[in-house]
Amino acid sequence: MSLTPKQARVLRFIGSFVAEHGYPPTLEEMGKHFGTTSPHTGFCSVIALVRKGMLTKTPRIARGLALTEAGRDYLRYLKVVT
User: Fold this and answer.
1) Residue 82 domain-assigned?
2) Mapping DSSP to helix (H, G, I), strand (E, B) and coil, where does residue 67 land?
3) Rounded Cα distance, 35 and 22, in Å
C-alpha cells in the first residue's frame, strides 16, 4: 500500500511515540508535534491510515490507535520500529 509523504510522517510519529512511551499519542499530541492547532488535520491522516490498513482506531478512546501488522512492517522497512 502506498502512503503519501504526510501519511508516512504521521505513521512514523505514531510508531516512534509508541516505541518511546508504550502507548499511542492523542490527536492533540500529534497536533503539537506537527505544529497544527486543529486536531482535524491529524484525524484526517489517521482515518486515511486506517483505510489503508496501517492502523486500527477504537472509537471514542483518546489513545485508541494501534499499529496493524502492515503498519509495523512498513515501519520496520523504514527502520523506525524494530
Assistant:
1) no
2) strand
3) 23
- What CATH number should be reported for the domain holding residue 19? 1.10.10.10
Query: Average pLDDT for residues 11-40, to the nearest whole number?
Result: 90
Residue 31 structural domain: 5-77
- Taking only the tens place, the pLDDT of each residue in 33-72 is 999 877 777 788 999 999 999 999 999 888 999 999 999 9
Are 82 and 76 in contact, with CB atoms under 8 Å apart? yes
For CA atoms 76, 51, 63, 10, the dihedral sign is positive
Say yes or no to pLDDT of 1 above 70.
Answer: no
Cβ–Cβ < 8 Å for 27, 46: yes
Distance CA 37, CA 18 (A): 22
